[in-house]
Amino acid sequence: MTAGKALSRRLTAELIAALAGEQPNVIFGGRLGSCKYYDMDDAIAAALELAEGELG
């Protein structure tokens, strides 16, 4: 990965984290919330794990 791409990903992650902090009743998960690529089965597993952690 190039330095420019790494910087872009870091800034995107920081922007998403800042925006998420302004939305107390919204949970950001999946590709958007973690700022990384997921295969569909991994995305579903991560969503279920997040929901279980948040909802009990």
What's the number of helices? 3
Helix proportion range: over 70%
Overall pLDDT level:
82
Helix-strand string: HHH
What's the gyration radius in Å? 13 Å
Cα distance, first to last residue? 38 Å
Main sheet specs = none
Percent strand equals under 5%
Low-confidence runs: none
Instruction: State the shape.
Output: flat
DSSP strand tally = 0
Helix and strand composition category: mainly alpha
**Domains, number:** 1
General description of the model:
By secondary structure, this protein is mainly alpha-helical. The protein has one domain (3-55). It is 71% helix and 0% strand. It has three helices and no strands. The protein has helices at residues 3-21, 30-34, 40-55. The protein is flat, with a radius of gyration of 13 Å.
Summary of the model, kept short:
This protein has helices spanning 3-21, 30-34, 40-55.
List keywords for this structure.
56 residues, mainly alpha, 3 helices
